[in-house]
Write a structure and sequence with these properties.
346 residues, alpha/beta, eight-stranded parallel beta sheet, three-stranded antiparallel beta sheet, 34% helix, globular
Length: 346
């Protein structure tokens, strides 16, 4: 590392959404140009719930990877009340599934088929523990009477503590954490518990959605929280702790879907993900910990090899476009219209 460049092992994205069809074909290259691997979320419509659909989705993603680019999608199985433990174990043994994803029913986009009661999937969790399959958790309760800003903290008390207690050898990733409660929980557990952190939750608090009018392009689930939580996330991400690693939760929606009565949840941050994260590490005076967060902690937790390739970022300003053409319409990316201080060296 010099004053003007930083070179790291090629990083991976341990949580993102590609969608499917034409949008998937157009967003995959943004991730593949930066990351060697990515944990791909299974909340399609219909969701990826068994080995055959996981393999088919992986094949569709691979057709969208640009020629000459090395990129490996790591597939996840969408857990339901009726998930077959034997099929999940077979999918992992055959190299189709790297992890399985727990969505509480109706917690986020395309999660209506998710788990209605965590107790119903205990036989699946037992099989995952026995086969050493990683559990990825969207950690929010979904009852309408629970304040949306409290749902992550409530999930920890109701479910995360019991999952970790009842399955002590199950590796668990608390996905896209948004609160100091989640940071404290992860830090207080053993090596089998880790967390991903998105760039948006390091940059914005809930004011970014609600001040100066509704800001739909800053709306994602879990929603951004108070400033105190954002600062706790920044401290965790830049601390050098091996328990935290990069997971963008990049989630593309067309402008028409974001600026609508739905105001669909999701932030498309893939085009400038590394530049966005690096801005935080520079602001926090923690550039020496960036490689661990981006490139080392995730592979080690997932028991996968660290990349042999390297990537260099230069301290050169780059302006994020106001919008990106997509599927005959456009998507507004994270940091639209802003100037970031780093860019990937070609």
């Amino acid at each position: 590392m010099t004053e003007h460049t930083i070179t790291i092992r090629r990083p991976d994205d341990w949580h993102l959404h590609f969608r499917d069809g034409e949008i998937m074909e157009q967003v995959v290259p943004y991730t593949a140009r930066q990351f060697g691997r990515a944990i791909v979320m299974p909340n399609l419509s219909p969701p990826v719930t068994e080995t055959a659909s996981g393999a088919a989705y992986r094949d569709r993603i691979l057709t969208a990877v640009p020629a000459g680019v090395e990129f490996t999608p790591l597939m996840t199985c969408y857990l339901t009340d009726g998930t077959d433990p034997a099929d999940l174990a077979r999918g992992a043994a055959e190299g189709v599934f790297t992890a399985a994803k727990l969505y509480p029913a109706n917690a986020t986009t395309n999660s209506a088929h998710g788990v209605s009661d965590v107790a119903k999937i205990y036989p699946v969790l037992e099989a995952m523990e026995a086969s050493d399959i990683v559990l990825c958790v969207h950690g929010e309760v979904t009852e309408s009477h629970i304040d949306v800003f409290d749902r992550e903290a409530e999930f920890i008390e109701r479910h995360m503590r019991s999952i970790v207690r009842d399955f002590p050898n199950l590796r668990v990733v608390f996905e896209h954490i948004t609160t100091s409660d989640a940071v404290d929980f992860v830090m207080g557990e053993g090596d089998q518990v880790a967390a991903t952190i998105t760039p948006q939750h390091l940059h914005i608090n809930r004011n970014a959605m609600l001040v100066g009018g509704m800001q739909p392009h800053n709306y994602c689930l879990p929603v951004a929280k108070r400033e105190a939580h954002r600062l706790a996330l920044r401290k965790a991400a830049t601390s050098g702790s091996p328990k935290f690693f990069l997971g963008t939760d990049s989630a593309p929606h067309l402008r028409s879907a974001k600026e609508s009565a739905c105001g669909c949840a999701g932030i498309f941050n893939a085009p400038f993900a590394l530049e966005s994260y690096l801005a935080v590490f520079e602001e926090e005076g923690a550039l020496e910990h960036f490689e661990a967060f981006a490139s080392l902690n995730g592979p080690r937790f997932y028991k996968l090899p660290v990349s042999d390739e390297t990537m260099t970022l230069r301290r050169v300003p780059v302006t994020v476009p106001d919008s990106i053409p997509m599927a005959g319409e456009e998507i507004v990316p994270f940091h639209a219209g802003e100037t970031l201080n780093w860019r990937i060296a070609e």
